[in-house]
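Internal tracking record. Fields below are filled automatically when a chain is submitted to the structure queue. Please do not edit lines marked as system-generated. If the sequence contains nonstandard residues, flag them in the REMARKS field before resubmitting.
Queue: standard
Priority: normal
Entity type: single polypeptide chain
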Amino acid sequence: MSEETVCVGVDVAKSALDVAVTDSGEVKQFANDDEGVGEAVGYIAGLKPAAIILEATGSLEMPLAAALQASRLPVVVINPRQVRDFARATGALAKTDSIDARILALFGARVKPEIRPLPDAKAREMKSLLARRRQLVEMLTAEHNRLGRAGEDVRVGIEGHIRWLEEALSQINDNLDHRIRHSPSWCEKSDLLKSVPGVGKVVSSTILIELPELGSLNRRKIAALVGVAPLNRDSGTMRGRRTVWGGRAKLRASLYMAALVASRCNPIIAAFYQRLVDAGKAKKVALTACMRKLLTIVNAMMRTMTRWQPGTTLQYAPTEAK
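SYSTEM-GENERATED OUTPUT FOLLOWS
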């Protein structure tokens, strides 16, 4: 993207779409309905933009993003935190829909985020089911905690709610499993991931849904994308402690559980974990390193569509396709 290239920012609200362009201070507004989305896509297409920047807003942005992608326009959905940090860096502290749209357009022009394909309709449905599953698990945990402190007058209600949540969770699990099993591509990838000791049904589903880039990026890029690549914190002669942050938190939490199990039952990960602990690394640091190694392994497996083979050098391969 050059400085003269047009970038478009779209602030998505429940009822309106505010569209701003880098080479113009004007902001056009469209209704956030089927007709308004069509008008917005037509207007944006006429601008021939190099990038169209949207914020992730709890799925409100998906109808517009899908319509833009269907029209073969270069749309990218950005983490809101990145945009707010960028706005503060430019001194833009005020916040309105039109200001946000201009900031998004400027973000596209200055940061030049990489354009990646958006998930298709089926993948979005799977992601919605997975999000609902997490909500049910969180509610179940909360209700079990309350049950331990509850008096007799409320225990019956809590126990009834727990039974309802467990049934709902079972239905969600069956729904996810059914959708994966009835998609040859997803089924093959799921079976491949589950061949790795430590990766079960829930972890494999989470990886497939939350990380569609798996197998298409090299090990460094995939680690940075997920948020398991250690980041430097150095200044002058001071050498800070390397930490991991950012990335895809929900996926990272699932990967942590997989690494925890793999550190006990997966011969390669277990040996790697023990070697780090014996070298004096804190157990949590060693587990984080195991997360990255496990991710590198499944990334290489997905790239070559090869099942777990601990007797080969696949899992140790230091280089991958760029």
